[in-house]
Specification:
The protein has 113 residues and is of the alpha+beta class. It is 27% helix and 27% strand. Strands 1-2-3-4-6-5 form a 6-stranded antiparallel sheet. It is globular.
């Protein structure tokens, strides 16, 4: 599955200078990780957004947002934001901030032995 490289580059530009951000190919697209934890990514033309369970319903109530579903069962705490929902830099920044804020509350991912 391909992903929108232009959206991925916009994310890279917005996150530039944050040394604790890394990239990893995941879910047939690309994911951006904060200290080892995925917080956003790109799948096809959509933004994968890890918003957390507390902001899940609010996120789904926004325009151009839908359930994130890879296996036939929606993933709680994750949503897809379609391309129309991240057209502007302000829209993209909203989702990046929301997702990074949520992931910053989680303990760092344990290192693999």
């Amino acid at each position: 599955m391909a992903y929108d490289e232009r959206l991925a580059q916009r994310i890279r530009s917005a996150l530039q200078g944050k040394r604790y951000i890394t990239e990893k190919k995941m879910f047939g697209g690309i994911a951006f990780l904060r200290k080892g934890l995925m917080f956003v990514g790109v799948s096809d033309a959509a933004l994968m957004a890890r918003v957390g369970k507390e902001k899940h319903a609010d996120s789904l109530g926004r325009k151009h947002v839908r359930e994130m579903d890879f296996t036939g069962k929606p993933m709680q705490g994750y949503v897809f934001v379609d391309a129309e929902g991240v057209n502007t830099e302000a829209q993209l920044r909203f989702w990046l901030d929301r997702c990074e804020q949520f992931v910053s509350t989680l303990p760092p991912k344990a290192a693999k032995p």
